[in-house]
Amino acid sequence: MESLIKGIFVGLPLALSVGPSSFYMMNTVLSANKLKAMLVLTGIVLSDILMLTLSLVGNNFIIETNTKIYNMLLIAFSIFMFVAGVMGILKAKKNNVELIMPKQKKQEWALGFRHPLLVGIFMNTSNPMNFVFWLGVASWLLVFFKPMSSSFFWFLTGLFLTTILGDVVKIFLSDLLKKYLKYTTTRLIKIIISILLIISSFYFLWLAIK
């Protein structure tokens, strides 16, 4: 139980924070629907599990010893954020439009590069800051917990449940805003979020080239 509580406390900052991924999910709700946002969230969680696994098995050279790969990830993430922001602004004038993804069709849920699940995986994995976070978590786990022990898994359970719950709350709050605010207000919110995505893209690009 103590390990579960520790995991919850470690996950709280992530659950309460609003970063590029949160902005994207919120914009997806406002531009499309909460189901697509939940699929994006699923992709993010799968990406987090992948990064944590890589960190635990010793593949931290991606960040620690290869600056070029780190910078390439930053640039890829900045491009993704910029495109998402621009698309959000361009489509904010249209009612019931979808960010990046095409209008709903019969084949919409076919697994393509625009599928929200894959968008979530790519967006989260291409952000090297997430690698840094999970490398830190992995190091902390290996120091304070015996690998594959019950306390090890309870800690991870608390961590992931807290972060997932935080994102789910953000998605449903965005859906409430969409339902109860006037269209002009939600349109303004979409534009503001899109601008924040563009600002984030320039920040990550600056980190890559500085």
From TrEMBL:
The keyword Lyase does not apply. GO terms for molecular function: amino acid transmembrane transporter activity. Its main location: membrane. It is found in: Cell membrane. It is a multi-pass membrane protein. It comes from the Bacteria. GO terms for cellular component: plasma membrane. The chain crosses the membrane at residues 7-25, 37-57, 69-90, 128-145, 152-173, 188-209. Keywords: Cell membrane, Membrane, Transmembrane, Transmembrane helix. PANTHER family: ARGININE EXPORTER PROTEIN ARGO, ARGININE EXPORTER PROTEIN ARGO-RELATED. This is LysE family transporter.
